Amino acid sequence: MIEITQSHHDEIIAHAREDYPNECCGLLFGVNGRAERLLRMENVEHSPLTYRVDSQKLLEAFQAMEEIGLDLVGIYHSHTHSPAEPSRTDIALAGYPDAHYLIVSLANQDEPVLRAFLINNGVVVEQPIKIVPSPVESAPGTMGL
């Protein structure tokens, strides 16, 4: 299970809507499966079918989170016209077996669907998302970067 705040849930959906018709992507950092920080990332592919993060920006994000004692707990991205389930490409490129892969589907723009999965060596297992109340938080995506 992954735990995210209501504000993280809302931010993921907002990000997906803002980047539409292209896929959005971002990272969730925290401890013990509970997301504490969300970082929007730029989809350098600018594509409605795939996403990729700049490797230098990814390294900077990991270094910043390591400095404050947080681990990668989730990677999110959107599917603009397909269900919230990992595509063959998502499965093939999944390189973080301990991270939850969150996918938000905008196939129905009025009712986005957010689901989470663990992906390890091609095996996909859906995981529950527990949404908890949002404490007072810093602005999304700032993290001091």
Which residues form runs of ≥5 with pLDDT under 50?
none
- Tally of helical runs: 3
Let me know the number of strands. 8
Strand order of the largest sheet: 3-2-4-5-6-7
Q: In whole angstroms, how far apart are the ends?
A: 28 Å
Rg measurement, Å: 14 Å
What letter string, H or E per element, gives the SSE order?
A: EHEEHEHEEEE
Structural class by SSE content:
alpha/beta
Fraction in helix: 10-25%
CATH architecture: 3-Layer(aba) Sandwich
State the CATH superfamily name.
Answer: Cytidine Deaminase, domain 2
Strand content: 35-45%
**Mean pLDDT reading:** 93
The biggest beta sheet is recorded as: 6 strands, mixed
CATH class: Alpha Beta
Judging from the principal axes of the Cα atoms, what is the shape?
globular
Can you walk me through this structure?
It is a single chain. This protein is an alpha/beta fold and 145 residues long. It has helices spanning 6-19, 55-67, 88-93; strands at 2-5, 25-31, 34-41, 71-79, 100-105, 113-120, 123-127, 129-132. A 6-stranded mixed beta sheet has the order 3-2-4-5-6-7. Strands 1-8 form a two-stranded parallel ribbon. Strand 6 and strand 7 (123-127) form a beta hairpin. The N and C termini lie far apart (28 Å). The mean pLDDT is 93.
